[in-house]
Amino acid sequence: MFRIDSGAPYRKCDGISRRNFIELGMAGMASVGLPTLLQAREAWARAGRTPKDTRVILLWLDGGPPHTDLYDMKPDAPADHRGFWRPIPTNVPGIRVNEMLPRQARVADRFSIVRSLCHGSSDHAAGSHVMMTGRWGATGENTRGTAPSIGSIASKVLGSRESGLPPYVSIPIAKTFVESPGYFAANYLGHPYDPFETGGDPASASFEVQNLRLTKGLTLSRLDDRRTLKKAFDSLKREADANGQFDAMDQFEKQAFDLVTSPQVRRAFDLSSEDPKLRDRYGRHTWGQSTLLARRLVEAGVTFATVQMGDWDFHSRLKEGMQNFVPKLDSAVATLFEDLSSRGLLEKVLVVVCGEFGRTPRMNDGKGEPPGRDHWGNAMFALLGGGGIKGGTVVGATDSRGEAPTDRPLSPQDLHATLYRVLGIDPGVQFPNHSGRPVSALEGGEPIRELF
């Protein structure tokens, strides 16, 4: 959205009354945030520091995916534990996955599975918070986030890998269970480092990125015509100058204005330019097309992209829900690895698949409905591939029923340390919190050595 408006005073959520304002494009790249980002990038350049040219795509299985029904199956467990499906072999000897994941089974050499991840909490808010931020700080009784997400830290430290793109994008929304943007948010880093949310449904034929929509009668052709834009800018400048907004714009503000009008940004978000056959392979559903859009964005220069794949909270109707969800997950994940490989991007882009916890190894009675599985923070999985991570590896193990790790128990902090290593971020980098106390990006945790 490009909007310059002048109207009646209104009160923002920060309590400040405003009459005239400028919205230069993308929520997360608004004029108050992008200049800070550009200044940070310039400071990096002056210091002679070159960030690693790596990016992350996080497929967030919101609600808690069942580990023993996906990547850590227990076919020899009692019937009320082993579930409805059988494991199948993959193209890596010894690694087996759910029979509803045949396409991922064919590309298992490109990713690794951590089967011994655990944090001990069965609370949606607590589990989501620690998985997204690496810190405890929310509960079902108080869901407020207290720390920045790893995507926000990547946004602040690294910016985007290519100028002109937002560094941190969530497709189509940023949401952790019931909170939006929830624990994807920047918290004390400030709103400029929140994710830019595309909105809409990427699987829709009429999909467009809501925050890039033009208003006030502007068209793309008019926006591309710099002379027309300058005339509109100058005519409004006389009104806006009354409160000094334009006078306050420095070189970074002006650069921000140029970036949000860039055709490069519009091209990156344009799914219609993709080969229809590739779109079919990802799946003509929200998850598939969102994953394809994430690939387009990291290829263009976005540093951290998340894809919301929600509603895994199957307390009942597990079989029905999984039969709906798992084939969609299979097409999206398998095609993403194939696509990244064919484009020569797999070493550059890390793919992570996880949720906030696992599910109870023993199925419940469904309370009058078909059975399901409840919350379980004592064992869970994470799938990782690309970005320099080894493929075809299984890290850790759980017991015969999937109740707890028996080998190499790993924490969310270990997962975060792994992502920081891939991105080239020092986990000891510090930021002031709300009280001004310096806080490290991560406390505790070590990169998962078996993956490197």
Protein architecture, described:
This protein has 452 residues and is an alpha/beta fold. It folds into two domains: 1-6 and 20-50 and 219-261, no CATH class; 56-209 and 269-314 and 327-399 and 419-426, Alkaline Phosphatase, subunit A. It is built from 13 helices and 18 strands. It has helices at residues 34-46, 79-82, 102-105, 124-133, 150-158, 220-224, 226-240, 251-260, 263-268, 276-282, 286-300, 318-342, 412-423; strands spanning 2-11, 17-24, 55-61, 87-89, 96-98, 112-117, 168-171, 196-197, 304-309, 349-354, 358-359, 375-376, 380-386, 394-395, 397-398, 405-407, 430-432, 438-440. Helix 1 crosses helix 8, helix 4 packs parallel to helix 13 and helix 11 packs parallel to helix 12. The longest helix is centred in the last third of the chain and has 25 residues, at 318-342.
- Kindly report the average pLDDT value: 85
Number of strands: 18
How many domains, in number, for the residues?
Answer: 2
Radius of gyration: 23 Å
Tell me the span between the first and last alpha carbons: 42 Å
CATH top level assignment of the largest domain: Alpha Beta
Any idea of the CATH topology of the largest domain?
Alkaline Phosphatase, subunit A
Content of β-strand: 15-25%
**Helical content, roughly?**
25-40%
- List low-confidence stretches: 1-33, 243-252
Sheet with most strands: strand arrangement: 8-7-9-3-10-13-6-14
CATH architecture type of the largest domain? 3-Layer(aba) Sandwich
- What is the count of DSSP helices, taking H or I runs of 4+ residues? 13
Summing up helix and strand content along with how strands pair, one would put the structural category as alpha/beta
Which overall shape is indicated by the principal axes computed on the Cα atoms?
globular
Please summarize the sheet with the most strands.
Answer: 8 strands, mixed
